[in-house]
TrEMBL record:
Keywords: Hydrolase, Metal-binding, Zinc
Pfam families named in the record: AstE_AspA_cat (PF24827)
Name of the protein in its database record: Succinylglutamate desuccinylase/aspartoacylase family protein
Residues annotated as domain Succinylglutamate desuccinylase/Aspartoacylase catalytic: 30-198
CDD domains: M14_PaAOTO_like
Length: 372
């Protein structure tokens, strides 16, 4: 194991931060996996999973079980980790710019294609190597002056040439669920089974350029842009793993999740050895455009009427929203048939708050599909 630290530009006189990461195996040897936790710095289940992964990967490396390289970033957002307001962590949005830490990662597709188009051939492996080199070169040439942009660039430099990218997050309160690119589902399905995910949300362009898409969509974008002229493999399997809710932080659960991720890396040829568990079938995937949020029409006290993970029908009551002064109760209904999989953890909310999410089977939304 090698511990490396990437310095970030100072945001103010007398202040400096760095982005630390761990490398297991040898750089450039075999297939590469990249795993990061807490890009939204107040989402902590992934940080504990990373702790267990560190211990397991250290042991596997000592046993000679690593067939490739694993980059582990236990705290992917030192900026957000330092943001506390009145005793409460503010790790989702940068307090200087208001930007979401998991948005606005640069879409490399057009720039990289411009560099490689004249050199593409009928050999998919040669094309993969060519595109990977162009990705590294492009990111190496980029410069930044502010801390947030430098953090984004550092994370992309670590991840964008990986075969597997796993971005560990959580929701407010939820069952375990995944986000990934539609073209990747067949290869992601084993991960869903290993993690016992209840929902998998698929899209090719969810809007606002989250981290996982910035790593993986370059491959299907370029494939679409060149059409049938050249074979372009989907060389980066990137997944956002939502590890349940904010308070689901326990050693037993985190160790089980870490075991599942290690087993997935075994399936990817990055770690040797047999699986530690029996493969379960994957959940049925649904389009991200079919994930319908339920929004509070007014301020009120929130009472949830159904349990997470339940299958619901359109029109089923999900929430009582109570005005404590008038006594009025607004009953909020499921907008579609689907899996009721995530909800807000606050129990008194202002108007416009997204309270719950239902994963429906039909793609009905347009535009930016991710919450703020």
């Amino acid at each position: 194991m090698e511990l490396i630290s990437i310095p970030l530009p100072s945001p103010a006189a007398g202040t400096s931060r760095a982005l630390p990461f761990l490398r297991f195996g040898k750089e450039g040897t075999g297939r590469k996996a990249y795993i990061q936790a807490s890009l939204h710095a107040d989402e902590l289940p992934g940080m504990l999973v990373a702790h267990h992964l560190r211990n397991q990967l250290t042991e596997l490396e000592q046993q000679g079980q690593l067939l490739g390289e694993v980059i582990l970033v236990p705290t992917a957002n030192p900026i957000g980790l330092a943001q506390t307001l009145l005793g409460t962590s503010q790790g989702r949005f940068d307090l200087r710019t208001g930007q979401n830490f998991n948005r606005l990662f640069h879409n490399l597709s057009e720039e990289v294609l411009e560099r490689v188009r004249s050199q593409l051939s009928s050999d998919p492996h040669a094309n993969q190597k060519l595109i990977r080199t162009a990705i590294r070169d492009y990111l190496k040439e980029q410069t930044t002056i502010d801390e947030l942009s430098a953090q984004r660039l550092a994370l992309m430099r670590l991840a964008a040439d990986a075969d597997v990218v796993l971005d560990l997050h959580c929701d407010c309160e939820s069952v375990l669920h995944l986000y990934t690119g539609t073209p990747l589902w067949d290869r992601v399905a084993p991960l869903a089974g290993l993690l016992d995910a209840q929902v998998a949300l698929l899209e090719t362009n969810s809007g606002d350029d989250p981290f996982d898409e910035a790593c993986s969509r370059i491959w299907w974008d370029i494939a679409a842009l060149v059409g049938n002229e050249f074979p372009i493999p989907l060389a980066c399997l990137a997944v956002t793993v939502e590890l349940r809710g904010f308070t689901d932080v326990s050693h037993d659960v985190a160790e089980r999740d870490a075991n599942a991720l290690i087993d997935f890396l075994r399936l990817q040829g990055i770690i040797a050895g047999p699986l530690s568990q029996t493969m379960r079938p994957a959940c049925e995937p649904t389009p991200l455009a079919g994930c319908i949020p339920l929004t509070a029409p007014s301020a009120g006290l929130v009472v949830y009427l159904r349990e997470l993970g339940e299958t619901v029908k359109a029109g089923d009551p999900l929430i009582d929203l109570i005005d404590p002064l008038s006594g009025e109760v607004q009953q909020l209904l499921s907008p579609v048939d689907g899996i009721y999989f995530a909800r807000e953890n606050r129990r008194f909310v202002p108007p416009g708050t997204r309270l719950s999410k239902v994963a429906g089977h039909q793609a009905v939304r347009r535009g930016s599909l991710l919450s703020a």
